[in-house]
Structures are given as structure tokens and as C-alpha cells.
């Protein structure tokens, strides 16, 4: 198991993640805006068959994927400094749907997910704002995404951005504080410090999902936590 996280997440969170797999810490320089320069969800999109990565993801991370037999394809567009060029890979792919701002999604994601329903949202930083939990269950801190999820008849919880830390910004986004693996929601922080902590706890309890709080502090937006399991056998799609 490889776990991908921003190098700048709190030290206690790093130590706790090491209990679940090999931790790979992501950092870049000069590729995109500093505050999101180590965010996994800026450079990596998880599909149901493999991960799609930005071509300018650092080579040392690509080598880690190859060494650990993590299947990936490179996308066509590099991550750029500004939005929307920074958000080509920030899509959510789950339950046979691609949720993203359709006009900026990298073509490789679309090709990998042919036949999937494309759900257009205005927020290009979709994965930052949206945590997919499987079986059409979601938590989002974006009002526009929330309304579209309800239109699609999905089970969604809308939460606040209040108190979520993203250095360099007034606030961060809920999706960026979390990862999801094996029916566990891993949170960069302790939800007792979070404005909507009780709402989150009740929603996850209703889905029989476990919460793993990775450090005792306010929620920290690190661009998500990606759990990549090499035991999954990926199949190449035919053109």
C-alpha cells in the first residue's frame, strides 16, 4: 500500500499514516501555486481502473509508483501555475461518474472512463471540495456541487469550510482534509475542532464508516490523502 500525502501535513499525521502503509510525501517547486504545490489531488486522479497523473508530476514519485507496481497513465496536460490549468486532474471519478468542470478535465481521464456519466460542476477544484464515499454517498463543502449532487439523487452532506486550514488562504476545503480506504475516512485533524464535526460524525455513522483522526488539531487541507493498493489488478481499456 502506497499512501500519497502533502509533505507539509502535520508530523503526527505522518506518523499515524505510516501504520497503514508506505508513506510518499509530495512536494514540487515552480509548477503551481505554492499553497497547493504538494497536493496529491492536483497531480493525480484516481479512476476505477488506474490512476491518471500529470506529466509534470516529479519523476521520483513516478518511480515510486513503478517500484510498487502501481498502474498509471500520464495525462496530456501539465499542471500549471494558475486556475484552471492547476485543476486538470482535480476530478472525482466514482460510481461510473466523472464529476468535474467538463471543459478542463484532462482527456486521458475521459478516455480511461469511457461510458461513464459526466457530471459538470462549476468548481474545477472538485476533489478538493468533494469527498466520495462510494455507493453514491458524498460529503462536500461546495454549495454548487451539493446542489448538483442532490439533482442527481445522490446522498450528500453539505459542510462548512469554517476553520479548515490551508496556509496562504482564508480557508481550505473539506475534501482536501480527507482520504477514504477500506471503509475508513482518514481526516487530517480532529473533528471535535471542526464547526460541522458532529454532522460529519453522524453522517459517517449512518453509512457504517469508521473515522480515523490523524492528529489532534484543526482540519488541515493537504489536497487529500490517496491510498494506492497494488493488489488491485488494472485492465487496459481497448480503444
Overview of this structure, please?
With 239 residues, this protein is of the alpha/beta class. It has a single domain (2-225), classed as L-arginine/glycine Amidinotransferase, Chain A, CATH 3.75.10.10. It is built from seven helices and 15 strands. The chain has helices spanning 11-17, 40-43, 59-67, 107-112, 126-129, 143-151, 197-206, and strands spanning 2-6, 22-26, 44-46, 51-53, 72-74, 92-94, 97-100, 117-120, 130-132, 137-140, 155-158, 178-181, 184-187, 210-213, 226-228. The strands form five sheets. Strands 2-1-15 form a three-stranded mixed beta sheet, with helices on one face. Strands 3-4-5 form a three-stranded mixed beta sheet. Helix 3 links the parallel strand 4 (51-53) and strand 5 (72-74). The longest helix is centred in the C-terminal third of the chain and has 10 residues, at 197-206. The two termini are 30 Å apart. The relative contact order is 0.17. The model is unreliable at 232-239 (pLDDT under 50).
- How many domains? The number is 1
- Looking at CATH, the homologous superfamily is L-arginine/glycine Amidinotransferase, Chain A
Low-confidence stretches: 232-239
Order of helices and strands: EHEHEEHEEEHEHEEHEEEHEE
Give the strand order, joined by hyphens, for the main sheet: 2-1-15
Amino acid at each position: 500500500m502506497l499512501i500519497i500525502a502533502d509533505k507539509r501535513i502535520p508530523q503526527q499525521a505522518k506518523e499515524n499514516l505510516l501504520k497503514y502503509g508506505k508513506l510518499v510525501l509530495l512536494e514540487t517547486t515552480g509548477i503551481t501555486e505554492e499553497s497547493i504545490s504538494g497536493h496529491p489531488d492536483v497531480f493525480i486522479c484516481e479512476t476505477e481502473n488506474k490512476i491518471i497523473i500529470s506529466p509534470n508530476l516529479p519523476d521520483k514519485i513516478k518511480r515510486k509508483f513503478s517500484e510498487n507496481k502501481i498502474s498509471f497513465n500520464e495525462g496530456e496536460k501539465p499542471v500549471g501555475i494558475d486556475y484552471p490549468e492547476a485543476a486538470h486532474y482535480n476530478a472525482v471519478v466514482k460510481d461510473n461518474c466523472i464529476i468535474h468542470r467538463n471543459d478542463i478535465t484532462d482527456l486521458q481521464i475521459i478516455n480511461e472512463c469511457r461510458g461513464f456519466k459526466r457530471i459538470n460542476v462549476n468548481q474545477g477544484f472538485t476533489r478538493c471540495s468533494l469527498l466520495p464515499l462510494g455507493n453514491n454517498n458524498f460529503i462536500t463543502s461546495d454549495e454548487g456541487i451539493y446542489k448538483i449532487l442532490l439533482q442527481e439523487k445522490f446522498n450528500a452532506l453539505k459542510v462548512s469550510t469554517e476553520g479548515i486550514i490551508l496556509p496562504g488562504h482564508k480557508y481550505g476545503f473539506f475534501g482536501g482534509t480527507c482520504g477514504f480506504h477500506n471503509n475508513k475516512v482518514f481526516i487530517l485533524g480532529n473533528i471535535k475542532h471542526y464547526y460541522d464535526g458532529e454532522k460529519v460524525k453522524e453522517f459517517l455513522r449512518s453509512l457504517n464508516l469508521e473515522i480515523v483522526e490523524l492528529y489532534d488539531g484543526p482540519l488541515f487541507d493537504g489536497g487529500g490523502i490517496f491510498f494506492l493498493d497494488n493488489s488491485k489488478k488494472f485492465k487496459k481499456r481497448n480503444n
